[in-house]
Design a protein that fits this description.
Helices cover about 35% and strands about 15% of the residues. By secondary structure, the protein is α/β, with parallel strands linked by helices. The protein has a domain of about 160 residues: TPP-binding domain (Rossmann fold). Helix 6 crosses helix 10. The longest helix is centred in the N-terminal third of the chain and has 15 residues. The model has no long low-confidence stretch (mean pLDDT about 90). Its main location: cytoplasm. InterPro entries: DHS-like_NAD/FAD-binding_dom, NAD-dep_sirtuin_deacylases, Sirtuin, Sirtuin_cat_small_dom_sf, Sirtuin_class_U, Ssirtuin_cat_dom.
């Protein structure tokens, strides 16, 4: 990390030390360091060859029309049961325990924030750990889905659907409204591991009213000009230092 970036991380550290109202909003880049591929990176899902583009396969209409193909892709490319939380997940959980971080808002569906110990996690796009029978509503965990061949079915015969937001589906309004409220009231808003190009999630930045908007991403984003602090480093490296403090 060069001198300028080190100074910026020092600034972030100082801001967090002085605050008890930090909100974190994260995207796919938060989980790439846990071995979960980013959708839009060069080696991400969107650059893999399938009979259909990934956007098509993980759309609501395709899921309804061709659940076999949907589930083959979903199980192969979107489930990572052995992934472990990385330094960013663990540091955010620690900062929540210290009364610094009020909420984590995530676009990820992997449940790694909860696995690290974060309690107030708003999952904009749902979670692979929650699955429901579309006929009777019975709940199934991830292990149950992984243990079933082909299209997972309930004992009642209904197809089990993951509680994840597919293309063509709307975000859960209650979760979205809660996220907006946290962002509006935040002292510091840290946005990490997202290119801020996916709406409506990217639009959440517009609700922040404070003067400490922090963007942490390996590459530039369209919102960098609006930020009070921009750190172009891997998010795990930035948060690593918060784990070392007080050990």
């Amino acid at each position: 990390m060069d001198q300028i970036m080190t100074e910026r991380v020092n600034q972030l550290e100082q801001w967090i030390q002085e605050s008890d109202n930090v909100v974190f909003f994260g995207g796919a880049g938060v989980s790439t360091e846990s071995g979960i591929p980013d959708f839009r990176s060069v080696d991400g899902l969107y650059n893999q060859q399938y009979a259909y583009p990934p956007e098509t396969i993980i759309s609501h209409s395709f899921y309804r029309r061709n659940p076999e193909e949907f589930y083959r892709f979903y199980k192969n490319k979107m489930l990572f049961p052995n992934a472990k939380p990385n330094a960013a997940h663990r540091a955010l959980a620690k900062l929540e325990q210290q009364g610094k971080v009020r909420a984590v808002i995530t676009q990820n569906i992997d449940g790694l924030h909860q696995a690290a110990g974060s309690r107030e996690v708003l999952e904009l796009h749902g979670s692979v750990h929650r699955n429901y029978c579309t006929r009777c509503g019975k709940f199934f965990d991830l292990a149950a889905i992984l243990g079933m061949e082909g299209v997972p079915r309930c004992e009642c015969g209904g197809i089990i659907k993951p509680d994840v937001v597919l293309y063509e589906e709307g975000l859960d309004q209650t979760t979205l409204q809660k996220a907006v409220r946290y962002i509006q009231e935040a002292d510091i808003l840290i946005i990490g591991g997202t290119s801020l190009t996916v709406y409506p999630a990217a639009g959440l930045i517009d609700y922040y009213r404070g003067k400490k908007l922090v963007l942490i991403n390996k590459t530039a984003t369209p919102m960098d000009g609006r930020a009070d602090l921009v750190i172009n480093e891997p998010i795990g490296e930035v948060f690593e230092r918060f784990l070392k403090e007080g050990e």
